[in-house]
Amino acid sequence: MKKYKLNNFKLNRRDLLAGTASLGAMTFASKSVLSDENKSKNLPPNLPEWTSELGEGVDANPYGMPSEFEKNVIRRNVEWLTASTESSVNFTPIQDLEGIVTPNGLCFERHHGGVSIINPKDFRLMINGLVDREMIFTLEDLKRFPQVNKFYFLECAANGGMEWRGSQLNGCQYTFGMIHNVQYTGVKLSDLILETGLKPKAKWVLAEGSDSSGMTRSIPIEKILDDCIIAWAMNGEALRSEQGYPARLIVPGWEGNMWVKWIRRLEFGDMPYMTREETSKYTDLLSDGKARMFTWVMDAKSVVTSPSPEKPILHKGIHQLRGLAWSGRGKIKRVDVSLDGGKNWKTAELHEPIMSKSLARFTFPFEWNGQELLIQSRAIDETNYVQPTIQELQKIRGVNSIYHNNSIATWLVSKTGKVDNVRLG
Amino acid sequence: MFDWVKLLTLIITSLFFMNSVFASERKFNLGKIALKKEVAGWDIDVRPDGKGAPIGKGNAIKGEEIYAEVCASCHGDFGEGIDRWPELVGGHDSLDTHDPIKTTGSYWPYASTIYDYIYRAMPFGAAQSLSHDETYQIVAYLLYMNEIIEEDFELTEKNIGKIKMPNRNGFLLPDPRPDVKIINGKPCMKNCTVPLKIIGKARDIDVTPEENKS
Question: How many domains does chain A divide into?
């Protein structure tokens, strides 16, 4: 029997089915539902229509857009979640994406006062408070500093927040899509501070946006000096307006709310500022009525993007299970996959590059012969933290936390190949 | 005769001197020094201890008028919240129940935050359009409706840092995570004891936007 090599240990295909398969499942079902129904005249032996005529020339699309056949790959929101779209969120269609890079136009949006449109000539970054020199920088100034280029995931602390009490939204996009992963270009704050100097009493930084919500968050100086960046580019081009053009704060591995967009000011102080976001919003209410404050790190998490509620199984035979894993504490070390609701696990293949505080891609080959599956994935990061079950989180935090739900989700594959977001208990 | 060499030497020397003086303090010589009035215009934050609170005052009596004018259309006449806009009043003793109501009165730990947020971001779509006095008035009205201050209490830059909010001690620090059982990277792999009964399906809740129902 053919053997798949998956990371450090080998297993055969029968193992991959977690003990639920019969030998019959080893036979590949070659029939495809889609190709059976395709009566197109472009198929062999005919001449496809696009071959017999010229296509569009260069410059037909000075800024290229995805194929018209990819119209469904879009950000989506859940209207009932918020009162207005200006203070709302939408979701990245992670179920339709491959690899680890999120295309700029698909990065989920979270705004608190709509998208500010800023002429870069009018951009100024002010640094004030406990510094030797209060200073103002233009965008051109920022670009003359030594630069860094880094991949980081950005996850909203409320990603999966609707699932604390049970499975609520039937979609991979809606339950895991408040995340994106791009390469940022910018200047390290530790370099910027060489210009202003720092007073010894400076322990906290207030980061402030210039949008209509005046977004503000307090960040401890250790984090600011460690790896925070003021970025002006994502995936090689200028930031998109909805991602903070012309410049935003990057706070690697920490909750997305802190990554202040349309940044205008950094104030150094000797205590936290206790802004609206970090008191009334991004605090985690426990069952005894007390709330955790300053829960910044995004713990390790993973999701199976296919199969998923939006990606049903259409064929019997072999499939490549695909998923994403990430940790705010460093690199992903391992991802396990279960097809039987967490009873038995196998280790998935992790794809290079594996970077700290960045999405990691995993795949796992499996065969489907029409049986029910309960698909789960479980991330382990380089600190040996293991992604928990929802019961483990609920036991400690109750069900009112909203934020920081990094638990394992379950996709039920029915006998017809339909996939549902379900809760096991 | 004019000594070009001497002049050039002088210029170069003085440039070098200037540069070296600045370089000792500023590594890259980028950006400009911010003027006091530039900082004053943008530095609008108010800290829990009242630092940054602008000179001004307001009470709930005046606050009720301005609240009705610029806040009530979303937040309701009594801070009850209209549609999905946030509730601002009430929710006391609800935080440890199944349906916690987080309002300025039941949840917010500092009065300074209410001032800071209203001034910087409210009314929604008209940020920083309120005067300092109007902002103090609205904050006073919210504190009054939440039974934290009296109706005629004059809220000012001097006392906003001293208001005792009901949930001031409701927050836990520091972050205790990782808070789940440490299994040191070696979770169960085979025949694990786990719950396998399906106790809920998102499909049955039926709140997923239509397009994505499969």
Answer: 2
Q: Report the residue of A9, A71, A80, A273 to disrupt the B interface, i.e. the one with the largest count of B CBs within 10 Å.
A: A273
ipTM passes above 0.85 = yes
Question: Do A323 and A416 reside in the same domain of the chain?
Answer: yes
pLDDT for A163-184, tens place per residue? 999 999 999 999 999 999 999 9
Task: State whether A317 and A180 are in the same domain.
Answer: no
How is residue A131 annotated by DSSP? S
- Distance separating alpha carbons of residues B127 and A214, to the nearest angstrom: 8
The residues, ordered by sequence, that sit 6+ positions from B100 with a Cβ below 8 Å of its Cβ are A285, A289, A400, B91, B94
Q: Which domain holds residue A131?
A: 104-292
User: Is residue B7 included in any domain, yes or no?
Assistant: no
Residues of A in contact with B173 (CB under 8 A): 292-294
B194 in a structural domain: no
- Domain-embedded: residue A184: yes
Closest Cα to residue A123, out of A143, A144, A137?
Answer: A137
CB atoms near residue B96 (< 10 Å): 14
B60, part of any domain: yes
Q: Which of B113, B180, B208 sits opposite A169 (nearest CB)?
A: B208
Measured in angstroms, the CA of A378 and the nearest CA of chain B are apart by: 9
Taking only the tens place, the pLDDT of each residue in A329-345 is 999 999 999 999 999 99
* Cα B13 to Cα B5: distance, rounded to the nearest angstrom: 12
Final residue before a domain boundary, out of A292, A317, A332: A292
Domain around B150: 45-162
